[in-house]
């Protein structure tokens, strides 16, 4: 049964008809989808293909590379650098922009691709969810690319998306007209539009944060999390649920499906790293996808998409998801910065708890 199904190619033709870079952008996104299919095949084969395990060396982030980090990186590069739409690529796995296979500068395109080839790679060896994240920016056609050209704020993205290699493989993307999800039909090898115009509920009772970092959090994050944990006995007057999948892609996907808030906030571990996630190829594309679905994305102290990047692999605090929850967290940061937040009181000792002080 294929009648009535919207394939990725058909969707792109319709969405990009009026777009200034329509033809090149459509061709590039189809190439990204081809890379996603080959990464999906590798993740599905797992140990059978010899794809699991770590390599000896670390990447530019000082993190140990998994075999799949490298294979996924090569898959994206191979699929996207030959078609003439790109002027340059930046990958999480390389310090500097990647050289293009297409060496003839006059035939270079006007688009830049920045990507995280395999997100959540610590999940590879436990057969957990992993993903790929990408963002497309503009460049002046024909001129040589330098690292500075990639330092554009998230508001300048022309396309953004991710692939989730879960029980099924999904590709979720935006070109600025809503956020849309496609599911890979493995039998025919096509991405089919299955989740058009995703919408994130404004309110939610689900949050995601790596609680093992609690001792490094700032007071506004402690305040938010402790209020969630206090549930119906605290100021929120309702119970909250918590999730942690250790793959940003999977967390954002859950939020796009049913709402919630995700936090990888600023912490005090290392002043050189004011967050865990990378601005250009993790935070920005996800922030745009979330905003296009009616959610909000913030550093806690401002809209993520408006942040001016200063380095290719810059890390930033990330708080995103259901609008009301993100706004509440921004308020807590404002109140804290103004010295006006409430002193932190453990939920065990608040006025409605068992240990209430009389
Ligand atoms: O569970 P941890 O160690 O706090 O880190 C999880 C975070 O790190 C990441 O895995 C970083 O991505 P990479 O795997 O691309 O380095 C995010 O996906 C995730 O949100
Ligand atoms: Mg990542
Ligand atoms: Mg990665």
From TrEMBL:
Catalytic activity: beta-D-fructose 1,6-bisphosphate + H2O = beta-D-fructose 6-phosphate + phosphate
The EC number(s) this enzyme carries: 3.1.3.11
Key word RNA-binding present: no
Organism superkingdom: Bacteria
Metabolic or biological pathway, per its Swiss-Prot or TrEMBL entry: Carbohydrate biosynthesis; Calvin cycle
Pfam families found in the cross-reference section: FBPase, FBPase_C
Subcellular location field: Cytoplasm
Cofactor(s) the record lists: Mg(2+)
Cofactor note: Binds 2 magnesium ions per subunit.
Main enzyme class: hydrolase
Fructose-1-6-bisphosphatase class I N-terminal domain span: 7-195
Residues at which substrate binds: 119-122, 210
Database matches in PANTHER family: FRUCTOSE-1,6-BISPHOSPHATASE-RELATED (PTHR11556), SEDOHEPTULOSE-1,7-BISPHOSPHATASE, CHLOROPLASTIC (PTHR11556:SF35)
SUBUNIT field: Homotetramer.
Protein name: Fructose-1,6-bisphosphatase class 1
Gene: fbp
């Amino acid at each position: 049964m294929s009648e009535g199904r919207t394939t990725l190619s058909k969707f792109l033709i319709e969405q990009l008809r009026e777009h200034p870079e329509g033809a090149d952008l459509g061709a590039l996104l189809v190439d990204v989808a081809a890379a996603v299919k080959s990464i999906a095949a590798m993740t599905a084969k797992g140990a059978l293909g010899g794809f699991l395990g770590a390599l000896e060396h670390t990447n530019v982030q000082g993190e140990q590379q998994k075999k799949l980090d490298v294979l996924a990186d090569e898959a994206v590069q191979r699929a996207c650098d030959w078609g003439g739409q790109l002027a340059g690529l930046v990958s999480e796995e390389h310090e500097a922009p990647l050289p293009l296979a297409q060496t003839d500068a006059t035939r270079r395109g006007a688009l830049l691709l920045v990507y995280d080839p395999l997100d959540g790679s610590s999940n590879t060896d436990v057969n957990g969810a992993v993903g790929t994240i990408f963002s497309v920016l503009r460049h002046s056609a024909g001129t040589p690319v330098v690292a500075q050209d990639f330092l554009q704020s998230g508001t300048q993205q022309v396309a953004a998306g991710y692939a989730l290699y879960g029980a099924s493989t999904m590709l979720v993307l935006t070109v600025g007209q809503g956020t849309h999800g496609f599911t890979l039909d493995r039998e025919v090898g096509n991405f089919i539009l299955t989740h058009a115009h995703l919408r994130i509920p404004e309110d939610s009772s689900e949050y995601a944060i790596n609680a093992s970092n609690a001792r490094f959090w700032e007071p506004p994050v402690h305040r938010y999390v402790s209020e969630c944990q206090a549930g119906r006995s605290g100021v929120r007057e309702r119970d909250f649920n918590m999730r942690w999948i250790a793959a940003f892609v999977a967390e954002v996907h859950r939020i796009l499906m049913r709402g919630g808030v995700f936090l990888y906030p600023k912490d005090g571990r290392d002043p050189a790293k004011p967050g865990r996630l990378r601005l250009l190829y993790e935070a920005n594309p996800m922030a745009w996808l979330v905003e296009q679905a009616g959610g909000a994305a913030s550093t806690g102290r401002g809209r993520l998409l408006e942040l001016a990047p200063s380095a290719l692999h810059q890390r930033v605090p990330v708080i995103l998801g259901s609008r009301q929850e993100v706004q509440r967290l921004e308020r807590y940061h404002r109140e804290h910065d103004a010295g006006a937040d409430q002193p932190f009181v453990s939920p065990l000792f608040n006025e409605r708890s068992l240990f209430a002080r009389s």
